[in-house]
Amino acid sequence: MRVLLVGNYAPDRHQSMQRFAGALHAGLAGRGHEVTLLLPPPRLGRLRPGPSGLGKWLGYWDKFAAFPHQLRAAAARAEVVHICDHSNAMYCAQLAGRPHLVTCHDLLAVRSALGEIPENPVRWTGRRLQAWVARGLMRAQRIACISQATRADVERVLAVPAARLAVVPNGPNHPYRPFTAAEVARCLAGLPGAPAPGVPYLFHIGSNAWYKNRAGVIRIAGALDARGAVAGLRLVFAGQRLDAGLRALVGECGLTGRVDELGEVGNDQLNALYSGALGLLFPSLAEGFGWPIVEAQAAGCVVFLSARPPLTEVGGEAAVQLDPCDPPAAAAAIAANLERLAELRHLGLANAARFSTTAMLDGYERQYREVQP
Hints:
Helix 1 crosses helix 14, helix 6 crosses helix 9 and helix 7 crosses helix 12 (327-336). 44% of the residues lie in helices and 14% in strands. It is built from 14 helices and twelve strands. The radius of gyration is 21 Å and the shape is globular.
């Protein structure tokens, strides 16, 4: 099958979406499909690359003025076109008459633009952009949602008929597995700021975006430390470094000198951080899926997550659920489960096995066949 994957504009730095498109490309090619991954090339955006300021506006020209002609030409040679990120759903206008589908990872930006999420106010230009995304999704031939919760949002917010919707859960981007203590020590030995062997720590990976609730991560860790439940507890962050407000909150919560910021890490380092952690602390306010949940469980890491879908959908019975907006209660939930860590690791490994790259590829191949005449 000739498959055209439409990926993200590189200067926007949507790393998770780049990994998703890359995993699809490699997986489908490995199954014998003729696969092309097409990205909007930086033209004007090369003058000032970046997802904000002047770079954002130059990128708009590259993505929305220059790229559509290239997309139409490439789509004419494909049997099916797959837009890998719903934020590019406006490209559906270029695919009339061509078999196609869009993967919808979440509707958080669309819902924010509609005023449904007051924690994330959106300016006029953002509201116009998200209205364009929504119109693109509404005209898509098929929408593959990565969770049941995302599908429910698409049905409710966009009134897309159920017949045009499917659920294809994400598979992991890397074959995470439980590391031994020796493997953890070896992989973290050259990582500046990594916790020393034997030091207990809670781990969080992500960004400072509102829905990641990093302020909640810090407050929950502080409340757990105040209980004295874990001697010498540290808090370790990977991904985007904390901003000034979050660093100030670290001091307010009594964690000065016990928070480590590691920045971006490689797959093996991430695997080691999961395997060596007391647990992944993931109190997001909203998600479309929650990749770190599956990654952590596959690496033998206990997951403490928000009692909200789709996190509960993904984490299953193996995860400890908590209220992301009540740090003392969340800390109490973690403390109450510290004696169950070995049991929860075992349950987590079984739960993570529900999500595989094989199952994800099977799901997309099925959707490709169904959208073709």
